[in-house]
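Consider this one:
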Amino acid sequence: MPRCPMLAAMLALLACAAARAQEPAPAPFEVDWREAADSPASVAFLLSAPAGKDGFLGVKDGRLTAPDGRRVRLWGINVSGKACTPPKDDAPRIAAHLARCGVNAVRFHFFDRPAPNGIIDAARSDTRAFDAAQLDRLDCFVAELKKRGIYTNLNLNVARQYKAGDGVRDCELLGFAKALTYFDPRLIELQKEYARALLTHKNPYTGNEYRREPAVAIVELLNENSLVESWFSGRLLGASTRKNPGTWTDIPASYEKDLTDRYNAYLASRLAPQALADLRRDAGVAAGAPVPRLKPNEFAAASKSRFHTEAAFYMEIERRFHADMARFLRQDVALRPLLAGTSDHNHGRTGYPLLAATAQLDVVDGHVYWQHPRYITDPVTGRNTGFSIPNTPMVNDPLRSTPVQLARSAVAGKPYTVSEVNHPFPNEWACEGVPILAAYAALQDWDGLFWYTLAHNDILAEKPWMMGHFDFAFEPVKMAQLAAGALVFLRGDVQPALETVARSYTREQVVEGLRLPSKEGPLFTPGFPPAMPLVHASRIGSLDGPPTATFEAPAGPPFRSDTGELAWHTAAGKNGLVTIQTARTQALIGFSKDHTPDLEHLAVSVEPAFCAVTLSALDEKPIARSGTLLLAAGARAAYTDMKWNDKRTSLESWGRRPMCIQPVTGTVTLRGLAGAGRVDAQPLDAAGRPLGPALEAARAGDAWSLAIGSTPTTWYLVRVTR
């Protein structure tokens, strides 16, 4: 008999609350970027420096490759706003620290803003010129990254807010002008002008124009921008009257009229007279009158003909935009790096109509966040006044997990990157995010992961700032996990799935997916079990082909990958656990006490009940014969005196510095270390340097037990003497 979903949710919440009882006390553990230095736990050996030394990245058999055909993956992180243009003296230190964490790609995001938040000259009445000093900082940072083997991903249109001098109609009402960038001629002209200016700019520190820079892996056209999404989200109604409305806003009335006029011209050019007359009758308008566009609350009742005709209109605009921009960049600008359009990012609705356009380009991309904050907005000013999150662990919800959500967007024959992903702060279960996604991205054989974001500000500022929901730079658990995740994903400790399951959609299914209820998410593919991406690889075979087949659901839970290396454990009345078991990496992520995982080399008996413990060889040997291993042990991170509300869904106070960690305490047991005569573990500080005395393991037969937690930390260097 199926369990009641509400009862299951209540039991999960009660279990999570119980898991917080009698846990280790928080301890200060700050990431000091000014003190960052060489670390014995560095994984910079995974990088090949300088980036692009052999030429531009390419595509072979649907995967990113080096010029000699070698498989390439990108383990990346974003930099946003001011963080894109650090002071030139700081750029080498930041780049070196990222390399030590195994980051081999940086996505430059939100820098199409006025200085000092971006590279646009703030003193002008338009947005058509760069600030020379800011551009110089950007150039220097890109060059420092390149030196260390770190590729660049350049975003073109993200957050540009137009001024009167740009000649853009109603510029003060547009916000980031999402949706409008697809069809307004002036906005398209300005996007091309900006792209040409940036990509033909010569970086004096590398000697290359960006269009000819092999260390630039990918250029992205747009960020989280879709005309189809704006349609189903009710942002094409023409009701925007507030100045500087921000990111997600309805379009102004003048653009709504323009779009409706374009729609009616499209109908006149595409439909036979009788079909157009039938559509007018369907819409309830007189002969010769313009056909109104559908509002979201009219979707369900709309006829198939009317709904599909309007959807095809938006889809064609998206397809033409991406094709035209690609042609412009390739032919007029002579761009060499790979191109991505925009991300499939709204997992509350289908993304297949957008993918039909973006899959024309070199790289397909996706975004997702586990429980992105829902912001509470003042209706008058539009300013955020607070936030809320469900604040529940992903390990308890595998079928809606980030690996499953992201798996819907990968297209056969195309590299697939995830250029934004995170468990946003202050989610109490965030330590699960990096290791789980690193493992399942490797299973799916994706081409890149970019965590969002390192920072939005100057990391090495003299007065350290309080990080927000998305920053990694001062989050000590996530920063340590970057290095461990690089070993899993970049080195390929988790092997790709043995079987790839292809999904095919008819054109009708792609459009009708827009009317599917949210319960069909995140895959919006009836007949396709959401557990499939936890077992096999999954790709879209066609978005204009045979109808989707019916697939047999994989066995589980537990859901075991077809390689046998990953398992997602859930059971009635128990919390979840993900295990990784490979020759060079083993991990327990979640509630290890609720299950009896049998890993060859790793066992734990620790507090808190929820944590992520990862063990990886730091050399090319398997754990059984490795001389040095990285042990990452993370739980919660929070600010001093941070205060939750009663439901633990929002903060009453963000608290103050320093950042604190909840140390993982107890016993970690290592087994099967062939020929080991001594095992010790050196605690590391947040910069990866030795912290306090080493911990000597106690031997009992084939097992070595480490009592961890006496020195608060998130990671250890384990040394095996033979």
